[in-house]
Amino acid sequence: MSASALALSPAAASATAPAAPEIPRGGFLAGWWAGLRLDRIALRVLALILCVAFWQAAAVHHLDLGIVTFRFVPAPTEVAAAAWGLFQSPKLFAHVTNSLIRVFAGFGVAALLGIALGLVIGRSRWLEDTLLPPLEVMRPIPGVAWIPLAILMFPSSELSMIFITFMGALFPVLLNTIHGVEAIDRRLIASSRSLGAGRWSVFAEVVLPGALPSVVTGLAIGMGTSWFCLVTAEMIAGQYGIGYYTWESYTLQNYADIVVGMLFIGAFGMASSGLIKLLGRLLMPWYRIQERHA
């Protein structure tokens, strides 16, 4: 067989061509579940059990380490009883729904504005020099410091609370988007332009897909900081909300209820950030394949 025929034969092509990344059967969920091996799940469950066991022992025996004391910390059994009481309360639904509305409203606006600003600032030095300095000045300001100004700026306490959660989510989304855009290899952009791609094509097919992993990371962090700012936001006013429930429990010295509120915020924050990461992986099939074969 001649060399040219050998080069054109399918067998030779399959022998010399690099193997394509193998995508697991059953779609993304099957691949995700396969990645979570049973030993890792068992290890994570064991870590949680050990933490709760230490907490129970330290609270029951009033462990005093000098710097840290568990003398007044409620035990997990007390927290479980308080949580069961909250689950039986008709106020639970109002607390959860009000907090979810405030967090997702503030986060949604922060996501739209942060991604839009991050994309344009990352692509323009002029916009970076004009918009980034005032944003960097506001970034270190904690959520509690915005309370007086939020009360003055907005006609209702509800909008003020949404604004606090918005400020908590804005900067992680913004800065991660800028970082994602600036980290794109400039040779990819130059190659696309040399092949005739216009400005919009370069943005849609090179810049946006390249920055998307950083954008998703920023969204996940921003969701967590939104929940972090929830207690601060619901300190302003209101009668319902998980943060308000936690703060009210503190003023009434119901220590077990404080921990219940903290655990609710932690659980909802972890679940919502995990949901964003899951949606991000669904939007980035090429990134999953790259991670799997790295």
UniProtKB/TrEMBL annotation:
**Signal peptide (UniProt feature, chain positions):** 1-19
Arranged from A to Z, the UniProt key words for this protein are: Cell membrane, Membrane, Signal, Transmembrane, Transmembrane helix, Transport
What this protein is called in its record is NitT/TauT family transport system permease protein
Instruction: Write down the SUPFAM superfamilies for this protein, in alphabetical order.
Output: MetI-like
Q: Iron as a keyword?
A: no
Q: Which GO terms describe its biological process?
A: alkanesulfonate transmembrane transport
- Kindly report the protein's main subcellular placement as a broad class: membrane
Species in which this protein is naturally found: Aromatoleum tolulyticum
InterPro entries in the record = MetI-like, MetI-like_sf
Q: Which GO terms describe its cellular component?
A: plasma membrane
Q: Where in the cell is it found?
A: Cell membrane
Positions of transmembrane segments:
43-61, 68-87, 99-121, 161-181, 202-221, 258-279
Q: How does it sit in the membrane?
A: Multi-pass membrane protein
What family does the Swiss-Prot or TrEMBL record give for this protein?
Answer: Belongs to the binding-protein-dependent transport system permease family.
Organismal lineage: Bacteria, Pseudomonadati, Pseudomonadota, Betaproteobacteria, Rhodocyclales
Domain ABC transmembrane type-1, residue spans? 96-276
